[in-house]
Amino acid sequence: MPSQREIRLNAFDMNCVGHQSPGLWAHPRDRSWQYKDLEYWVDLAKLLERGKFDGLFIADVLGIYDVYNGSGDAALRQAAQVPVNDPLALVTPMALMTEHLGFGLTASLSFEHPYPFARRLSTLDHLTRGRVGWNIVTSYLESGARNIGQQAQKDHDARYDYADEYLEVVYKLLEGSWEEGAVLRDRERRIFSDPSKIHPIDHRGTFFSVPGIHLCEPSPQRTPVLYQAGASSRGKQFAAAHAECVFVAPPSKALLKKTVADIRRRAEEAGRDPRSILIFSKLTTILGETDREAQAKWQEYKQYVSYEGALALISGWTGIDFAQYQPDQVLKYLHTNAIQSAVEAFSTADPNRQWTVQGLADWVGIGGFGPLLVGSPQTVADEIQAWVEETDVDGFNLAYALTHETFTDVVELLVPELQKRGVYKKEYQPGTLREKLFGAGPRLEAPHPGAGYRRGAAVGAGRGEKVA
């Protein structure tokens, strides 16, 4: 029997042209070339809220895909995630024009000090009234590292050691610096804040020294909802400790089931309820009123896929220059310093399929690494329910073939079908993004490590440390 669990949906976009479907920007109905216009983003936010999406998950990279042929030329020719604008500025106008939609902001902790970044998070959480999340990434592009003065990207696992301390600083600032009740707004006594309830964090660590107070008063969520998208072994260990939502992108049910089980097991080992983490898998849908109509749309889209653009993206994601391989060459597992799970997923982890370079480019050409479902609302809904039932995943980050067409089809065709089946919400829950997603309070709660840095938190709630 199909799963009756509520299925979660995020839209997956990026402040660029060719996000996950290289070449399709040239399709006459695609709007991604308008990425630099506010109307594009406001229209998208309104559409997603009409479809009761949990959020808009905004990807980002700081750097260019320059592994393919040792150059960024292919990425530039095909607009493969370049040009790319900053995602942070998009959130406020979209929040102003919506009431419930959440915003998952991707921001790399490799390229910005936690002290000013914590202020940015608090500011966004205030302006959205608690509807912001942070997708924690460590970054993987060597070009990004070089352009901020690093000789090279840190080793893959070492980036997560750095990330652990980065999160510690952020927790101390957002959770521990200002007590509840520190802001008085007492006009009669002319006292806005009580200095005795505002504390320097006095952090001295391996990577950071942050002596002072957080500059912002507590926001609705204090710490935004924490997303994490690392799927390597070290990445999953980090996610199990910190993430509230995890974003993965396996290409098959078998691999997704294994990934979900591994994340939940690690969360339990970290002392957390494995159900306290929502796991979203990447998915792309091509919908029509009938299966035949959807298949025809897919064939139309495929005419615009860029082989060169797909390989530029894959080379950047994996650290392997795919220009050195013939299209019919079969992939072998190679250890790289980029996204290790991406290499593993298409070489050794799914033993039922052999992947050639051409096959990989065709797969990635529409929607990136994740699977593609094509069909009528009934066909796609059946398959989505089967993925939930067979893999234990909580929901999906939906990439697009064409924007906003793909999302419009989901809102107008798929969402009503899922609602009819009782597996998709008809109304939003009130409150902050955290309250909407988890039905709990607006703030991090024990045993999440961040909750332990709050003044008055129970000992043991945060990495063995208590803020007195």
TrEMBL record:
Q: Which SUPFAM superfamilies match?
A: Bacterial luciferase-like (SSF51679)
Is the keyword Repressor assigned to this protein? no
Q: Which UniProt keywords apply?
A: Flavoprotein, FMN, Monooxygenase, Oxidoreductase
Q: Could you tell me the EC number(s) of this protein? A: 1.-.-.-
Superkingdom to which the source organism belongs: Bacteria
UniProt lists compositionally biased (Low complexity) regions at 450-460
- What InterPro entries does this protein's entry cite? Diverse_substr_monoxygenases (IPR051260), Luciferase-like_dom (IPR011251), Luciferase-like_sf (IPR036661), NTA_MOA (IPR016215)
Q: Which GO terms describe its molecular function?
A: monooxygenase activity; oxidoreductase activity, acting on paired donors, with incorporation or reduction of molecular oxygen
Q: Per the database record, which ranges form the Luciferase-like domain? A: 32-390
Residues annotated as binding FMN = D60, T106, H156, Y160, S232
The UniProt entry's sequence similarity note says:
Belongs to the NtaA/SnaA/DszA monooxygenase family.
Q: What is this protein called?
A: 5,10-methylene tetrahydromethanopterin reductase
Question: Which source organism?
Answer: Pluralibacter gergoviae (Enterobacter gergoviae)
